[in-house]
Amino acid sequence: MIATLIIYPIVTLFVLLWAYTSIPKFFKFKYFYEVLKSQAIPKWTVPILTGLLPILELSVVFMLLFPSTRLMGLYFSFGLMLIFTIYVSGIIYQVYDSYPCPCGAMFRRIGWKKHFKVNIWLTGIALLGILVIEFNLFK
């Protein structure tokens, strides 16, 4: 009972997050490509990521919706958030040669430091969901 009260809000949060971030990328594919070109990533990865990221994010939405794949969806959520958090930390700690704008719809106005904090929280929330399901916590 308690596990359900913990898992459902976590799953809902990530379903909304990944749907919100993936769906516009399909409709503004060219814009997303240009945004990726401005990021501090190897240029050869841009065409791959332009196609892969929205498909992966939307796939995670569907994984989270079904109980049989929910844990896998939480693992993907954790992994994606961890990657994004590490990337943003590189921007904050000036690891890269260039510093792109936070062009994502959600973070356009808040800046990189707040973006980093939100990412840390979301990564932790995904980990909590994994732990609750994986180890039957609060059963």
Entry summary:
This protein is mainly alpha-helical and 139 residues long. It has helices at residues 2-27, 29-37, 46-65, 70-92, 111-134.
Describe the protein.
The protein is mainly α and 139 residues long. It contains five helices and no strands. Helix 1 (2-27) runs antiparallel to helix 3 (46-65) and helix 2 (29-37) packs across helix 3 (46-65). The longest helix has 26 residues, at 2-27. The chain starts with a helix and ends in a 5-residue tail after the last helix. The model has no long low-confidence stretch (mean pLDDT 89).
Instruction: Please give the radius of gyration in angstroms.
Output: 16 Å
Question: Assembly state here?
Answer: single chain
- The parts where pLDDT drops under 50 for at least 5 residues are none
> How would you classify the helix and strand content by structural class?
mainly alpha
**Number of helices, where a helix is a run of at least 4 consecutive DSSP H or I residues:** 5
- Helical fraction equals over 70%
Question: Outline, from the CA principal axes?
Answer: globular
Helix/strand order: HHHHH
What is the first-to-last residue Cα distance? 7 Å
Which percent band covers the strand fraction? under 5%
Largest sheet: none
Q: Overall pLDDT, averaged?
A: 89
Per DSSP E runs of 2 or more residues, the count of β-strands stands at: 0
Quickly list its features:
139 residues, 73% helix, mainly alpha
